[in-house]
Write a structure and sequence with these properties.
46% of the residues lie in helices and 3% in strands. It has helices at residues 11-24, 44-51, 66-69, 72-75, 85-95, 104-110, 120-132, 142-164, 179-183, 185-188, 198-206, and strands spanning 171-173, 195-197. It is mostly helical. The N and C termini lie far apart (56 Å). It contains 11 helices and 2 strands; from the N terminus they run H-H-H-H-H-H-H-H-E-H-H-E-H. It has a two-stranded antiparallel sheet.
Length: 224
Protein backbone atom coordinates (compact mmCIF):
# COMPACT_ATOMS: atom_id res chain seq x y z
CA UNK A 1 0.00 0.00 0.00
CA UNK A 2 1.38 3.38 -0.96
CA UNK A 3 1.48 6.07 1.68
CA UNK A 4 0.71 9.67 0.77
CA UNK A 5 3.06 12.13 2.43
CA UNK A 6 0.70 14.51 4.21
CA UNK A 7 3.37 15.65 6.62
CA UNK A 8 6.72 17.39 6.29
CA UNK A 9 9.74 15.29 5.44
CA UNK A 10 12.30 15.57 8.25
CA UNK A 11 14.83 18.32 7.59
CA UNK A 12 17.81 16.02 7.92
CA UNK A 13 16.40 13.72 5.26
CA UNK A 14 16.15 16.68 2.90
CA UNK A 15 19.72 17.64 3.61
CA UNK A 16 21.45 14.32 3.27
CA UNK A 17 19.08 12.36 1.05
CA UNK A 18 20.71 13.50 -2.18
CA UNK A 19 24.31 12.70 -1.18
CA UNK A 20 23.21 9.35 0.24
CA UNK A 21 21.51 8.42 -3.04
CA UNK A 22 24.58 9.45 -5.00
CA UNK A 23 26.83 7.35 -2.76
CA UNK A 24 24.42 4.43 -2.99
CA UNK A 25 24.70 4.54 -6.79
CA UNK A 26 28.47 4.84 -6.57
CA UNK A 27 28.35 8.27 -8.19
CA UNK A 28 30.22 11.46 -7.55
CA UNK A 29 27.92 14.27 -6.48
CA UNK A 30 27.77 16.79 -9.34
CA UNK A 31 29.33 20.20 -9.02
CA UNK A 32 27.00 22.91 -7.73
CA UNK A 33 25.24 25.05 -10.29
CA UNK A 34 26.11 28.73 -10.00
CA UNK A 35 23.23 30.61 -8.45
CA UNK A 36 21.23 27.45 -7.77
CA UNK A 37 18.41 27.78 -5.29
CA UNK A 38 18.48 25.81 -2.04
CA UNK A 39 16.47 22.59 -2.06
CA UNK A 40 12.73 23.02 -1.76
CA UNK A 41 11.33 22.47 1.70
CA UNK A 42 14.48 23.53 3.58
CA UNK A 43 13.60 25.87 6.44
CA UNK A 44 16.77 27.49 7.75
CA UNK A 45 15.08 28.92 10.87
CA UNK A 46 13.70 25.53 11.86
CA UNK A 47 17.08 23.95 11.19
CA UNK A 48 18.86 26.45 13.45
CA UNK A 49 16.24 25.99 16.15
CA UNK A 50 16.98 22.27 16.12
CA UNK A 51 20.79 22.33 15.91
CA UNK A 52 22.01 25.66 17.34
CA UNK A 53 22.53 24.25 20.81
CA UNK A 54 24.17 27.32 22.37
CA UNK A 55 21.60 29.65 20.77
CA UNK A 56 24.22 32.11 19.50
CA UNK A 57 22.71 32.31 16.02
CA UNK A 58 25.55 30.36 14.38
CA UNK A 59 26.41 26.73 13.82
CA UNK A 60 29.84 25.37 14.64
CA UNK A 61 31.12 22.17 13.11
CA UNK A 62 30.21 20.01 16.12
CA UNK A 63 26.67 21.39 16.12
CA UNK A 64 25.96 20.20 12.60
CA UNK A 65 24.46 16.74 12.13
CA UNK A 66 27.16 14.19 11.43
CA UNK A 67 26.54 13.78 7.66
CA UNK A 68 26.98 17.55 7.12
CA UNK A 69 30.20 18.05 9.04
CA UNK A 70 32.38 17.02 6.11
CA UNK A 71 30.79 19.89 4.14
CA UNK A 72 31.58 22.49 6.81
CA UNK A 73 34.23 24.16 4.65
CA UNK A 74 31.70 24.68 1.85
CA UNK A 75 29.11 26.12 4.21
CA UNK A 76 31.50 28.42 6.09
CA UNK A 77 31.98 30.82 3.19
CA UNK A 78 33.80 33.57 5.12
CA UNK A 79 36.03 31.08 6.96
CA UNK A 80 35.24 32.43 10.43
CA UNK A 81 34.74 28.97 11.90
CA UNK A 82 30.97 29.14 12.10
CA UNK A 83 27.98 29.06 9.75
CA UNK A 84 25.40 31.83 9.71
CA UNK A 85 21.82 31.50 8.56
CA UNK A 86 22.69 33.21 5.27
CA UNK A 87 25.66 30.90 4.68
CA UNK A 88 23.53 27.84 5.41
CA UNK A 89 20.77 28.99 3.06
CA UNK A 90 23.24 29.67 0.22
CA UNK A 91 25.42 26.67 0.93
CA UNK A 92 22.61 24.14 0.68
CA UNK A 93 22.68 24.41 -3.12
CA UNK A 94 26.36 23.44 -3.19
CA UNK A 95 26.06 20.29 -1.10
CA UNK A 96 22.90 18.92 -2.65
CA UNK A 97 23.47 17.05 -5.92
CA UNK A 98 21.17 17.82 -8.79
CA UNK A 99 18.11 15.60 -8.75
CA UNK A 100 17.73 13.15 -11.61
CA UNK A 101 14.45 11.79 -13.01
CA UNK A 102 15.58 8.26 -12.15
CA UNK A 103 15.63 9.20 -8.45
CA UNK A 104 11.86 8.69 -8.51
CA UNK A 105 12.59 4.99 -7.95
CA UNK A 106 14.09 5.80 -4.56
CA UNK A 107 11.07 7.95 -3.72
CA UNK A 108 8.79 5.09 -4.72
CA UNK A 109 10.66 2.70 -2.45
CA UNK A 110 10.65 5.15 0.46
CA UNK A 111 6.91 5.73 0.13
CA UNK A 112 6.15 2.01 0.49
CA UNK A 113 4.62 0.89 3.78
CA UNK A 114 6.26 -2.54 3.57
CA UNK A 115 2.96 -4.31 4.04
CA UNK A 116 1.88 -7.28 1.94
CA UNK A 117 1.13 -5.14 -1.12
CA UNK A 118 3.96 -2.63 -0.82
CA UNK A 119 6.02 -4.15 -3.62
CA UNK A 120 3.32 -3.76 -6.27
CA UNK A 121 4.34 -0.36 -7.68
CA UNK A 122 8.08 -1.04 -7.44
CA UNK A 123 7.54 -4.39 -9.18
CA UNK A 124 5.53 -2.64 -11.90
CA UNK A 125 8.38 -0.18 -12.52
CA UNK A 126 10.81 -3.12 -12.73
CA UNK A 127 8.57 -5.00 -15.17
CA UNK A 128 8.26 -1.94 -17.42
CA UNK A 129 12.04 -1.49 -17.57
CA UNK A 130 12.65 -5.21 -18.07
CA UNK A 131 10.31 -5.26 -21.07
CA UNK A 132 12.43 -2.55 -22.70
CA UNK A 133 15.46 -4.85 -22.68
CA UNK A 134 14.47 -6.78 -25.80
CA UNK A 135 17.82 -8.52 -26.27
CA UNK A 136 18.01 -9.49 -22.58
CA UNK A 137 21.56 -8.21 -22.08
CA UNK A 138 20.74 -6.39 -18.86
CA UNK A 139 20.93 -2.94 -20.45
CA UNK A 140 18.56 -0.53 -22.18
CA UNK A 141 20.04 0.95 -25.34
CA UNK A 142 18.82 3.92 -27.37
CA UNK A 143 17.15 1.75 -30.03
CA UNK A 144 15.12 -0.13 -27.43
CA UNK A 145 14.12 3.13 -25.77
CA UNK A 146 13.13 4.65 -29.12
CA UNK A 147 11.03 1.62 -30.03
CA UNK A 148 9.11 1.78 -26.77
CA UNK A 149 8.63 5.55 -27.07
CA UNK A 150 7.15 5.10 -30.56
CA UNK A 151 4.88 2.31 -29.32
CA UNK A 152 3.57 4.48 -26.48
CA UNK A 153 2.93 7.43 -28.79
CA UNK A 154 1.12 5.21 -31.30
CA UNK A 155 -1.07 3.80 -28.52
CA UNK A 156 -1.86 7.29 -27.21
CA UNK A 157 -2.84 8.58 -30.66
CA UNK A 158 -4.98 5.50 -31.27
CA UNK A 159 -6.79 6.07 -27.96
CA UNK A 160 -7.38 9.75 -28.76
CA UNK A 161 -8.86 8.93 -32.15
CA UNK A 162 -11.09 6.27 -30.64
CA UNK A 163 -12.36 8.83 -28.14
CA UNK A 164 -12.76 11.88 -30.40
CA UNK A 165 -13.48 10.59 -33.89
CA UNK A 166 -17.15 10.09 -33.09
CA UNK A 167 -18.32 9.74 -36.70
CA UNK A 168 -15.44 7.35 -37.45
CA UNK A 169 -14.35 9.07 -40.65
CA UNK A 170 -10.66 8.75 -39.78
CA UNK A 171 -10.12 12.38 -38.79
CA UNK A 172 -10.97 14.75 -35.97
CA UNK A 173 -12.96 17.89 -36.69
CA UNK A 174 -12.76 21.02 -34.59
CA UNK A 175 -16.16 20.16 -33.11
CA UNK A 176 -15.02 16.66 -32.16
CA UNK A 177 -11.72 17.80 -30.62
CA UNK A 178 -11.48 17.95 -26.83
CA UNK A 179 -9.01 19.16 -24.21
CA UNK A 180 -5.47 19.95 -25.34
CA UNK A 181 -6.15 18.69 -28.86
CA UNK A 182 -8.84 21.33 -29.21
CA UNK A 183 -6.65 24.02 -27.64
CA UNK A 184 -3.79 23.24 -30.08
CA UNK A 185 -6.03 22.43 -33.05
CA UNK A 186 -4.58 25.03 -35.42
CA UNK A 187 -1.01 24.01 -34.62
CA UNK A 188 -1.73 20.31 -35.11
CA UNK A 189 -3.73 20.84 -38.33
CA UNK A 190 -0.63 21.50 -40.43
CA UNK A 191 -2.37 21.28 -43.84
CA UNK A 192 -5.04 23.75 -42.67
CA UNK A 193 -7.97 21.70 -43.97
CA UNK A 194 -9.98 22.02 -40.77
CA UNK A 195 -9.39 18.42 -39.69
CA UNK A 196 -6.71 16.57 -37.75
CA UNK A 197 -5.58 13.40 -39.46
CA UNK A 198 -3.85 10.56 -37.68
CA UNK A 199 -0.43 11.41 -39.14
CA UNK A 200 -0.80 15.04 -38.02
CA UNK A 201 -1.64 14.05 -34.46
CA UNK A 202 1.17 11.52 -34.47
CA UNK A 203 3.62 14.18 -35.63
CA UNK A 204 2.45 16.58 -32.92
CA UNK A 205 2.76 13.90 -30.23
CA UNK A 206 6.34 13.15 -31.30
CA UNK A 207 7.51 16.73 -30.87
CA UNK A 208 9.68 17.44 -27.86
CA UNK A 209 8.41 20.13 -25.49
CA UNK A 210 10.31 23.44 -25.74
CA UNK A 211 13.26 23.61 -23.38
CA UNK A 212 13.55 26.58 -21.00
CA UNK A 213 16.33 28.99 -22.00
CA UNK A 214 19.63 28.57 -20.16
CA UNK A 215 20.79 31.38 -17.96
CA UNK A 216 22.84 33.83 -20.02
CA UNK A 217 21.90 32.23 -23.30
CA UNK A 218 21.13 34.50 -26.22
CA UNK A 219 17.44 34.72 -27.13
CA UNK A 220 16.41 32.86 -30.30
CA UNK A 221 16.36 34.99 -33.48
CA UNK A 222 13.02 36.48 -34.40
CA UNK A 223 11.21 34.93 -37.32
CA UNK A 224 10.23 37.20 -40.14
Amino acid sequence: MMRLFCYSVPVLALLVGGPVLAQDRGEQAPAPRPGAAPPGGFNVDRFFQQYDRNRDGYLERNELPEPLREHFGQLDANRDGRVSREEMQRGMASIMPRRRPSDMVYVLIEMSDCEDGCTEEVQRAYDILRRLDKNKNGKIDSDELKAERERLIEARVKALFKEMDTNQDGKISREEARGQVRADFDRIDTNRDGFIERKELLHAAEQRPPQPPRAGAAPPPERR
